[in-house]
């Protein structure tokens, strides 16, 4: 089924961008952050999706930046739970 859904890696830049966009949507949905933060991230991701319909290059660049920011947000969220309170 993954091959039908094009979730596997592809040599085609359009397919690869689509796969990465789907993965980004999954990651945003799974984030343990407030609803407002998720909504803001989802709107940014939708803007990248819209751009990808017109120009793959800039969309791929923006997606890469978005994913880096998402990684930082995830690391910040995870490490915030490890901070001891009250010293």
From TrEMBL:
Name this polypeptide is given: Uncharacterized protein
Upper lineage: Bacteria, Bacillati, Actinomycetota, Actinomycetes, Streptosporangiales
